[in-house]
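Illustration: Helix-turn-helix domain-containing protein.
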Amino acid sequence: MGKCSISQASLGETGFSYTLSLINGKYKMTILYTLMEFGVVRFNEMKKYIGEISYKTLSVTLKELEGDQLVHREEYPQIPPKVEYSLTERGKSLIPILDMMCEWGEKHRLPSRREQNKADI
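Result:
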């Protein structure tokens, strides 16, 4: 990363900006993390695991990730319908970044209030 003059630079032309355009969104990183951790995941399993996400938001976000070729959707012709999601090779290429985020979080996590209260007792 070389230093250059900000007056001659544009954030929109950086690799950072492109990467952010793919993963930016309230639940995109959460979905990518879920697929990294569990491999192949069905829609309702993911909804239950994430918890606070609505069905519509999960569906829209998965379609966006699929459109960006980060997530693969496999639909099985059966009743009831079965749909599974997994990371594509392109999506798997984000795993080192996700791993680094997990490591950073484990290293720098501040104790929760409950953990602090237990320590005070």
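Reading the tokens back as a structure: The mean pLDDT is 90.
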